[in-house]
Structure prediction request, 174 residues.
Amino acid sequence: PFVMNQCVTSGIYLSRWGLYDLLARINFLFFDKTKTLTKGEYYYSQFFLEQGTNQGTFLSTLFSLEALSKHPLALGAKTHHWYAEIPRYAVKDAHVDSGLGVSGMVSDPGGELHFAVVGNQRYVKRNRMYLSRDLREKIDYLEKMGETVILCAWGGEVKVLISLVDELRSDVTS
Prediction:
C-alpha cells in the first residue's frame, strides 16, 4: 500500500494492482532512449552472417549505404576496424528514412544492380525482406544485452545483422 500511495500521489498510475508490489521490489531500473544515460555515440560490436553470405559483399553494401546517412547508428558502422579498407559500391536511387534506415540500388563490382536495405527490423520488414528465425533470436539476445542492432538485406532477405554499443555517460551516477 505504501508504494501504491507514493505512486498515486506522484501521478504514476499502473494498469494492474500487482505491478505496485513489483515496483516495490525493484532495486535497479535502467532505461535510455533520450541519451540520458549514454553518450549517444555508437561503436561497432559484432556481426552475424547468414550462411553463404560473403563478408566482403556485406561490408561493401553496408558501408556504401550507411555513408549516405548522418544518423548516429550509421556513424557507428564507420567504427568497424575494416571501414577504411573496404571498397564502396555505387548507389542509385538512394532513400534515407530518418530513424529507420537507408535503401537503394547498389551496383556490385560487376556492374549488376540489386536493391539493398540497411536499417532496423521494422524498416527491413517494410521493404519486404525475409528475416530468419535464427537472426530474430540473435536480435532478441543482443537487445537484451543492451546492444543496438541494424540489419543489412538484399535479394529479398536479411543477410546480416550488425550490433553496436553505446557508452555510459561519465556523469551518470547510481
The CA atoms of residues 3 and 22 lie 10 Å apart. The helical segments are 2-10, 18-25, 55-66, 72-77, 121-126, 133-144. The radius of gyration is 20 Å. The first strand starts at residue 38 and ends at 49.
